[in-house]
Amino acid sequence: MIGIGSCGGLRVIKTRPVEAGQYVPGVISYPTVKLTSRARFSTVCLHAGQEPDPTTGAIITPIYQTSTYVQDELGKHKGYEYGRTHNPTRMAVERNIAAIEGGKAGFAFASGMAAIGAIATLLKAGDHAVVSDNTYGGTFRLFDKVLTRYQLSFTYVDTGDLHETERAFTKATRMLFVETPSNPIMRLTDLRAAADLAHRHEARLVVDNTFASPYVQRPIEFGADIVTHSTTKYLNGHSDSVGGIVVAVRDDDIEWLRFVQNAEGAILGPFDSWLVLRGTKTLALRMQQHNANGLALAQFVSAHPKVKRVYYPGLPAHPQHELAKKQMNGFGGMLAFDLGSLEAARRLLNAVRLHALAESLGGVETLISHPATMTHASVPADRRAAIGITDGLVRISAGIEDVEDLKEDLTQALDHV
Ligand SMILES: Cc1ncc(COP(=O)(O)O)c(C=O)c1O
Fold first, then answer.
1. Which is it for strands 13-15 and 2-4: parallel, antiparallel or unpaired?
2. Which of 119, 131, 136, 276 best tests ligand 1's pocket when mutated (most atoms within 8 Å of CB)?
3. How many CA atoms lie within 13 A of 411 on its CB side?
4. How many angstroms separate the alpha carbon of residue 176 from the centre of ligand 1?
5. Which of 104, 212, 299, 386 can bridge 217 by disulfide, Cβ–Cβ 3.0-4.6 Å?
6. What gap in Å lies between CA 156 and CA 168, rounded to an integer?
7. Which atom from ligand 1 is nearest to the alpha carbon of 115?
8. Looking at residue 143, what DSSP letter applies?
9. Which residues are bridge partners to 177 per DSSP?
């Protein structure tokens, strides 16, 4: 058992063992993992799933940029046959994030959407899933425009309201898919209650943990069956790679996901795997700064007279602040606020200098965006209105800059509103 303990105020948790080389069926044997059973979160982030390179001792896992592996003789190989099926760099990042999330196995994909697409293959024609109503727009698009063509059905509800969520369950429901905090209005779902609800109905709880990162929240601790991330965001953290990961705990899910990852082939490439491994080494440090800057900016905009409403779970005024304190470690780097009109939002977005006007989130640089016309443009206007994504809503992904510089930039930009 790898224990993850206190780091920057993080409570002690336990996670499952993820052994080096566990997916390699052949003769290669890795040295045993250096982590002790007491290894704490930042230590797990740095070391889990990785060993010094057996050939050279290189401390950093090499980028195995190869499509195939030479076999010793017919029927005898080193556990690696073909690059889509096995790649040591990818397998290292899979073990690393599985350990970080407290799961049993991880599967890395070419994007966050490819990861969610793989999860959806756990459903069969006729199955139904209940989904958070303000899930990422691309997730909604995949479910609504693609997967409904294959006799899958989806009901979108405010999963922050467990009664409403339970009412959406049918006999065919096999999955509860939640995002918490949700994007962009930071609505929370009670993870433990959601897991209990899903399991009472013999469904899986799947959590898209992209917005929080595993430093802030580890859904498997609360009973989730599957956790997914767009690694493009906090896990990679440096805005230089697109990828996705699925972490699972159930043996049947693991067996299926391994099969599907190879069968569909939407794998994360070796270089991107290496970039994400580089990213997770500093996850704990980065998240401490993202948390601090997110809170400071939320407090700053809350006090500004031109800001009508702020969405950030770390503010006592957030309706689920108590739940946030229970299931999150810090409140993350994402916040949104309403300026009341499209014109006001436009003026702010065109006036910022240090905040980069861009989609995406979770990188070291602070990004600012307009959900209604950018990340959530694929969500129909009536659904956007129902969820609270108004034309005046602005979203910030707080980076790790000095927060005083960020506040100065917002101050000058808000003067243009
Ligand atoms: C919460 C969430 N999940 C999934 C995705 C999809 O990830 P990717 O862009 O890596 O495909 C995103 C992308 O923004 C996201 O914000």
1. antiparallel
2. 136
3. 8
4. 18
5. 212
6. 8
7. 11
8. I
9. 131, 206
Give Cα separations from 310 to 58, 85, 124, 173, 299 (angstroms): 47, 46, 40, 34, 9
> In the prediction, which pLDDT does 16 show?
56
Averaged in consecutive runs of 10 residues, what is the pLDDT profile of the chain (417 residues)? Answer: 37 47 43 75 95 88 97 94 97 97 98 98 98 90 97 97 98 98 95 98 98 98 98 98 98 98 98 98 98 98 98 98 98 98 98 97 98 87 87 97 98 98
Tokens of 117: 């697409």
CA gap 95, 134 in Å, rounded: 30
44, two tokens: 């797990």
* Paired tokens of 33: 């993992």
Could you write out the DSSP letters of every residue in 89-136? HHHHHHHHHHHHHT-SEEEEESSHHHHHHHHHTTS-TT-EEEEETT--
User: Helix, strand, coil % (nearest 5) of the chain?
Assistant: 35, 15, 50
Helix, strand, or coil (residue 82) = strand
Pick the atom of ligand 1 nearest to 211's CA. Answer: 1
What are the b/e assignments for 175-193, b being 16+ CB within 10 Å? bbbbbbbbbbbbbbbbbbb
**How many residues can be counted in the chain?**
417
Cα 270 from Cα 384, distance rounded (Å) = 38
